[in-house]
């Protein structure tokens, strides 16, 4: 048996208005419309969302975990990006 | 992220799996870090997970069959709606799990082939028949109860996509067990015939439910390494004991008896001690000689074969629409 592989789609759901769409999983489907229907059946059986995005998995470019240090480690040496780096006298109150 | 391109097993990496990398991997596991699809992992970790997650997925899919048998004969609309929703959930659980397995570099088509060819295993429990309506109650109460016991620790398993799938599944599974127990309770409060039907279902499902946790720790091939890698958090025997301790009082509340003359409460340990499990039966069913093995696989093969034209047509239609869109874009560009 060698079937044509069914394309893979990543599924993102907005749980409530005011929240961003969040990745929940993936489905296989021939086209975008069927991917939306499959995502609806698979991931929203209990009122999990108000909106669905489906994205072809092949369209996602991901960073390589091996580059983790190169990409993200430099932020560790920049505490001055955080508000707690700066001293404000107590008398000044909340800032 | 569930992108597949970065997940292909790299034979060179496997061949040069040096101790330093293995040690760093174990350190991450010991520090309770989750392993994600594109992270380096030992080839055996990947193989173990593919085997375990796909078996789990196959079990959900085959598990739809014994209960699907009763949807059209449910005794009321309430029961029918609940059973339909439950069976649909099992299908959904299978799909979450297939997707999690696919992040390890195996394709859906390969996984389905492994099930249909008989190369992959699924839970032995689904090779028993559902003879009466009470079996639907017993399955929800006992089979889903055992599954929950097994699955709750899996929410903390070391492989991220598997753990996330399990969290979703566990949230949905609780309704399954409760609806099953409610069916048993209704039968036990009904006529003597109905209560006898519930007793008969318990008699037939009790031992197979205990076998669901797998062979005893002394014989389990995979337990030690899976525990080290935190794929598993409890051994088969530990989970089985937890299940017995939780379930026996529920059965006694129903006014039913368990088909085990050796079952007794041990006040010293607080555990229910149970009799010897017939592991010969377990091996027989797993090897393909249970009451329904052939029927289950035939049903899956038939469904797959009869759906082939739908999959082909959907792909052909998508290709045609892409082609038309490209042609239209080309014409607009030319004009």
UniProtKB/TrEMBL annotation, chain A:
It comes from the Bacteria. InterPro entries: PaaB (IPR009359). It holds the Pfam family PaaB. This is 1,2-phenylacetyl-CoA epoxidase subunit B. The lineage of its organism: Bacteria, Pseudomonadati, Pseudomonadota, Alphaproteobacteria, Acetobacterales.
